[in-house]
Write a structure and sequence with these properties.
With about 230 residues, the protein is mostly helical. It has helices at about 10-30, 40-70, 75-95, 105-125, 130-150, 150-160, 165-180, 180-190, 200-230.
Length: about 230
């Protein structure tokens, strides 16, 4: 296989475009943290770190794809293992900025995330039956959805009385619901529904990462800027 990215390789091009978009998003969030009040600075810093970590992994994943035309499963899950927990921490941080939040919220979101990722990785990497891995991953995702829609995190957000925080929280939870649904769809198509080509699976995952990571950070940025201007 060629070691050079070509315009005739849409998956390779998507890896490249997304890596650059995430670099740009990281720079944007780091610069914008100077516009917001102190209680929002950590949230924007984390938002920038999510983009930066993902960008580095996308550079590596692009090289793996261009060289082998194989799905870079290990690099993708290393990226998710770092960035997805940080996204869950963002729920805790924006609530902690405007209310007293028990540490249990943080740990439940983190544990749900790890269950989801470990199940998915072991299923995709062939370390366990793909169906079992899918079920474990879905259980972790459903646990997260419960926490942000009906659990303590949701209740704190509803009672906060901070309109900007509520808008950010609601936007983020819909990304976790609708945007994250792309991942199990890709998993199901690739490993449980008779299989699909690596091109399609990687394009699905790449599109999901672009929307879910940058969009997630933008919801926080909008709320932080609006709340800091009041």
């Amino acid at each position: 296989m060629s070691n050079n990215l070509t315009a005739s390789d849409p998956v390779g091009v998507s890896f490249w475009l997304i890596s650059m978009a995430m670099v740009a998003a990281a720079v944007f969030f780091f610069i914008e943290r100077d516009r917001v009040s102190g209680k929002w600075k950590t949230s924007l810093t984390i938002a920038g770190l999510i983009q930066l970590i993902a960008a580095v992994h996308y550079f590596y994943m692009r090289d793996v794809w261009v060289t082998t035309q194989d799905t870079p499963t290990v690099f993708r899950y290393i990226d998710w293992l770092l960035t997805v927990p940080l996204q869950m921490i963002e729920f805790y941080l924006i609530l902690a900025a405007i209310a007293v939040v028990a540490s249990g919220v943080f740990w439940r979101l983190l544990i749900g995330t790890l269950v989801m990722l470990v199940g998915g990785f072991m299923g995709e990497a062939g370390m366990m039956d793909p169906t079992v891995g899918f079920i474990i991953g879905m259980a972790g995702w459903i646990f997260i959805l419960y926490e942000i829609f009906a659990g303590e995190a949701s209740q704190i957000n509803a009672a906060s009385g901070n309109e900007n925080c509520q808008k950010a929280f609601n936007g983020m939870k819909w990304i976790v619901t609708i945007g994250w649904a792309i991942y199990p769809i890709g998993y199901f198509m690739g490993y449980l529904a008779g299989g699909t080509d690596a091109n399609s699976v990687n394009l699905i995952y790449n599109l999901a990462d672009l929307v879910n990571k940058i969009g997630f950070g933008l919801f926080i940025w909008v709320a932080a800027v609006a709340d800091s201007s009041e």
